[in-house]
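Workshop exercise sheet. Pairs work together: one partner reads the sequence aloud, the other fills in the structure field after running the prediction. Swap roles for the next sheet.
Pair: D.N. / O.F.
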Amino acid sequence: MEYRRLGASGFTVPALSFGTGTFGGKGEFFKAWGESDVTEATRLVDICLGAGLTMFDSADIYSDGAAEEILGKALKGKRDHAIISTKGTFRSGNGANDLGSSRYHLIRACEASLKRLGTDYIDLYQLHGFDAMTPVDEVLHALDDLVRAGKIRYIGCSNFSGWHLMKSLAVSERYGLARYVAHQAYYSLIGREYEWELMPLALDQGVGAVVWSPLGWGRLTGKIRRGQTLPKVSRLQSQRVVEGGPKVADEYLYHVVDALDSVAKETGKTVAQIALNWLLQRPTVANIIVGARNEEQLRQNLGAVGWNLTPQQVAKLDHASAVQKVYPYWHQDQFPERNPPPV
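Structure field:
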């Protein structure tokens, strides 16, 4: 397993991490992801550790906290060999203060995650989203206090806009507070908007990308092609953007999958492995979160590391997945001498 520095920090993480959204299966939303109990989760965790995949990603809202509880039990006696990342911010109760990134909620959320995980520290604690209702300096002072208390080692964010992240980094620098070393962001061959602003920012500021949904909500697993129906159990069946992902034009998706099929035949790898390996060669990408309902899926995902696509194969995939950028990025691209592309 390849290890990479997480942003500009001195912390190294494996190129892949295991997403625990498949643990628990509470509610229709998370049931569509998976329903791994403690026994199955322990088996999957052991396979990961044996392959050098030592990082496990969770969140307090995954199956209403059950995912963290199951992860904690699966790591019992192995905590020193694992890296735990989890997230807070989203609503975790019915109270007026049971959401957001206020000092009140973040401290309570972090302490609740520690209890469920059965550990006294979290290696990477991330905000699940930006809270426009709480001052940025309050957020970062709260996170800095948790770092100084030894409850968190490093902090990160997720799903931030460019200005959200840059303002936060500026506040950290101004007050000498812990700074975000990671940004957990959506990025895939059919979702390349991360490259437009967040990637240049991450390169400039030393923020590592932790990629979620690298297979575009299951669209790049190789199971979706022209004339085929969707899998019976899939997040893609949902009509909600947050569950099924942003809409993707059928012809565009098929065009990308065609290119993936072509490269898969050249390499002898699966479509999913090609899509993951393409991401591993992108600037700023420190880690890719992979999920698995079972051992077979996990082992296939593990096969995405230990080799690299050729420059020609990368170019083929780049071309197939390219889309027209929105303003001002299409305008900036016309002046590469002053605005060189990050890739």
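Discussion prompt: DSSP finds 13 helices and ten strands in the chain. What would you look at next?
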